[in-house]
Amino acid sequence: MYYSSQQYPRRGRANWRGYRRGTLGRFPPQEVEDLPELPLGPSINEYNAHEFSKDITRYKSIARITNCSVVASWNWTNARAPEMLIPGKSTTLMCMPPRWSPPARVERLPQDSGDYLRDRNAARYPAHPIEPAILAAMKESPQVCGSNAVDIVACSSTLGNLLRFIRGEEKTFRILVEKVGNTVFLVRRERSPTEKILGVRGHGHTFPEAYTTWNQDVKSSTSHQRVLRYTLGGLQCLVRFEADGYIPDTTNSPEKRTSHLEVLDPSQSTAAALTSAFNTVGVSEVQPANTGDISLKIKQAGASIPQQQIFDLKTRSEWKRDQDTTAQELPRLWLSQLHKFILAHHKDGVFNDVKIHNVRDKVLEWERVNSNAISRFLSLVRRIMDTAEEVEQGKFEVCHMKDHLGLLRFRHQLPDAGSALSPTVRDKWLTLNEKDDSETSASDESSIEAILWDDEGVDYTACSAVCGYCGHCNTVKAY
Fold first, then answer.
1. Which residue has the higher pLDDT, 214 or 265?
2. Which domain of life is it from (predicted)?
């Protein structure tokens, strides 16, 4: 999406896992790669967090997340060209997070070292970082996708940044906003797709390397991504997040196949009609419509892991044992709807205090206690949606910058900012589920298959805005 495509050096698993926030122990704040700030467009408006307080009463009764389900999941692999593994009917397991597998003996772990990417999704697919999530969701759960079914598409990072701003935190960020039909896309924007955190220290990478294991069939994986669908304050949202791993089910095999739409709250969902979707596909390699200068390869096989087995992981030095780390992480766990949290304390790299917490009740309590902040957060999200409706092409940028902390600025996007989706995927998103329900399933599934499987049609690899993305320019594909 918002970056020119380029080739990236191949790295080992640790470097590609991405930066784990809050795992630094005694060490000073990490140094970010010194890159120039991307140009800013003209100002539209600016807000402080208190301006959204007037809407607390309006949204307080709906300031919660309901109807949560998993609509898609996939693994990034370490292939040089961007490659996704998504679930499918197969005897092998190609799409699952690493398994929690603590070693039999506790040994001292080395500190993290080296540089780590800030945004793995942008690094792997810079032309359209959010598009892999959309492709996976449209393939696995097309019935709940499309312009008429979804109000907001975002990742937990972008929503988390907006929530942090509302709560008065000083973290800087930039978010590209684009309205596609009735859906508003929020896409994280860094200075470069390969922007790095320099000189990482602590054990936020070496610990999961030692305490989790990729299934043999997914040894090439570098991360596990999931897409949730839930109702947030009356808005239908698709939210992508990266999962740290899963805890095996002791009563059922963790590899047991689950429906692609896994309902977390059965009493509030109509998922029963969707559980048989996409149960007939086999193991294959697929080639979607290309975007930018890099092609995205998709391999389909394997099974899904239930959301209740997914965990988030944080490491801390023993001197932080008295800090309530779990409470600090609850806003993020709320946005990702995670109920398992592993907190590992160490002394000089020896982890003798590792606890698995069931935080479901704490997440619900955080939601209840923070209803005012969530209401202001919803007011901000609605303001973003309204602005996207008003501006030209439905595009602008949300910026919280170092020189104006506490002030959120809406700015016009500059022409080189790009688009949330490639032309083919955008068109599919606009037309998905626009017919009567009786006509939707077969035609929509067929057209999604065309996006994912047809490598003989139009090819946007060499296209640009100059040719209007004609689909007929020639180039050598990057595999």
1. 214
2. Eukaryota
Global pTM exceeds 0.85: no
Q: How many domains does the chain have?
A: 1
Is 76 within a domain?
yes
Q: How far apart (Å, rounded) are the C-alpha atoms in residues 403 and 45? A: 16
Helices 156-166 & 325-336, crossing angle to 10 degrees? 130
Could you tell me if residue 9 is inside a domain?
no
Instruction: Tell me whether residue 256 is in a domain.
Output: no
Of residues 224, 215, 231, 221, the one with CA closest to residue 68: 231
Phi-psi region of 198 (alpha: psi -120 to 50; beta: other; left: phi over 0): beta
Task: Evaluate whether residue 91 is within a structural domain.
Answer: yes
Longest dimension (CA), the chain: 62
**pLDDT per position as a tens digit, 122-144:** 767 778 899 999 999 999 999 99
Are 113 and 27 in contact, with CB atoms under 8 Å apart?
A: no
